[in-house]
Amino acid sequence: MNPREFARRRRQLIRMMGRDTLAILPAAPPRLRNRDVQYPYRQDSDFYYLTGFGEPEAIALLLPGRGRGEYVLFCRERDAERETWDGARAGPARAVSEYGADEAFPIAAADDLVPRLLAGCERVYYTMGAHPEFDQRVVGWVTSLRAHGAGVQAPDQLVTLDHLLHDLRLYKSRDEAQAMRRAARIGMQAHRRAMAVCRPGLYEYQVEAEFLHEFRSHGARPSYLPIVGSGPNTCVLHYHANDRQLRDGDLLLVDAGCEYDYYASDITRTYPVNGRFTPEQRAIYEVVLEAHAAAIAAVGPGRSWGEPHDAAVRAVARGLRRLGLLDGTPASIVRSGSYKPFFMHRTGHWLGMDVHDVGDYKVADEWRVLEPGMALTVEPGIYIPEGMKGVPKQWWGIGVRIEDDVLVTADGAELLTADLPRDPDAIEALIGAMAA
Ligand code: GLY
Ligand code: MN
Ligand code: MN
C-alpha cells in the first residue's frame, strides 16, 4: 500500500481526536505456538492501519498539534547480531525516512519518554483490553506522571480509541478496495483449483492443501482457518479438523479465503464431491441460492444493515415451506423463528483487514445504514445434521452455505467475488475437471 495512504489515515484520525490529546497504539506481541516455536507474526490491524509498520515491539503515538511532529514511533534498534537470526529491522532512522514518522526512538526509551509526551494532555485515547499485557504499562505511565505532583498536568480521561478508529476502518478507500479485489481474486482462483481436483477418495486436508498452495503462490495467507467439511461435516459451522475422506454422494462445503496485503477475502462454496447434486442436495442448494440472491439485491447505499439478512430469512422460509420441511406460512415461519434450527447464523459481517471486521452494526439501537465504501459478506446457509428431528432421513447430512464478498458503491454494490460460479449447473461442470 502506498505510504501516502497511511499518512492520510493518520491525518483523518488526528482531525477527529482534537487538541491536547494523545493516542497510543501498541504493535501486536509475538505469540508462542508451542515451547519456543512462534506463530507466524501478524501485525495488529489497528496499528498497521495507521503505520504500515509490520515489526513487533513498537508503539505508535499520535499527538494532534504537536510542534515537533504529530506522529512518534518507538521501534527496535538496529542490531547486527539479532538481525542475523531474525531478519532486518527498520530502526528509528528508517522509521522516519521510510515509514513517515515525524520522530522515532528506540523502544527501550518508551518508559522514559511516553510519560513526558503525556504531560499536558487532557485525554488519552487507548483501547483497554485488546493487549492486556500492555494495559499495565499505559496505566503505569499515567500514574507515574500523576506522582510528579504540582506543575505537571496528567491526563484525566482515558478514552477507548475504537469508536473513532473503527469507524474510519469501516469505510474502505480506493486503495483498500483494490487490495480487497486482489484478495478476492486469489481466493476465487483457489476455490476453482479445489473444485477441479475434487473427487471421492480424497481427504479434506488434500482439498485444503490446494488453498494453501494457491494462497502462498500469490504471496497471500489464509485469512482464517479454512473449513473443509464433507458429508456430515458440512453441518458443523466452525469445522476445522479437515481430516475425513470424501465419499461418493457427499456434499463438500469449503469456507476459505486469504489475506493479501492485510486485507481479507471470505468465500464459501458447496458442491457435490462426485460432480452431480442429488435431488435433495440440489433442492436445498437452490433455496440457499435464492436467499443469497435476495440478500445481494438488498445491499446498496441507503439500505439498512438488517435488510440483506431479512431478505435471506424470507427466502429460506419460503424454500423450506415449499420443500415440506417446515409448516405454516412463510410469514409465520419468519415470525416464529422456526427456520432457526436450519439457519442459525446471520447473513454476513463487515469485511476488511479482519475477516470479521471492526465497525458498529447498530447506531443508537438501529441497524446501520449502508454507505459507499463499506464491505461485507453475504453468506446464507441451510444445515440439516444427521438425526435432525422431524426431518425425513433423505435430507440428513446436507449443509449448504454460499458466501460472497460485497463492496457498497455510490450506485449499488460491487460483488468482489462475482467471477466464482454459484449456479448449480456451472458448479457441477467445474468439479473434478483435473481429477486424476
Ligand atoms: N469464515 C468465517 C465466516 O464466514 O464468517
Ligand atoms: Mn464470513
Ligand atoms: Mn466464511
Within the largest sheet, what's the order of strands?
6-5-4-1-7-8
Number of discrete domains = 2
CATH architecture of the largest domain: Alpha-Beta Complex
End-to-end C-alpha gap: 40 Å
Helix content: 25-40%
The shape, in one word, is: elongated
Structural class: alpha+beta
Report the strand count: 21
As a percent range, the share of strand residues is 15-25%
CATH evolutionary superfamily of the largest domain: Creatinase/methionine aminopeptidase superfamily
Listed once per kind, the bound small molecules are: glycine, manganese (II) ion
Radius of gyration from CA coordinates: 25 Å
Q: What's the number of helices?
A: 13
Mean pLDDT: 96
CATH class type of the largest domain: Alpha Beta
Low-pLDDT segments: none
How would you sum up this structure, described in words?
The model has no long low-confidence stretch (mean pLDDT 96). It contains 13 helices and 21 strands. With 436 residues, the chain is α+β, with helices and mostly antiparallel strands. 36% of the residues lie in helices and 18% in strands. The relative contact order is 0.11. A hairpin with a 2-residue loop joins strand 20 and strand 21. The longest helix is centred in the middle third of the chain and has 24 residues. The protein is elongated and about 80 Å long. It folds into 2 domains: 166 residues, Creatine Amidinohydrolase, Chain A, domain 1, CATH 3.40.350; 260 residues, Creatinase/methionine aminopeptidase superfamily (Creatine Amidinohydrolase, Alpha-Beta Complex). Helix 10 runs antiparallel to helix 11 and helix 11 packs across helix 12. The protein has a 6-stranded mixed sheet, sandwiched between helices. A 3-stranded antiparallel sheet has the order 9-12-13. It starts with a helix and ends in a 6-residue tail after the last helix. One manganese (II) ion binds next to loops.
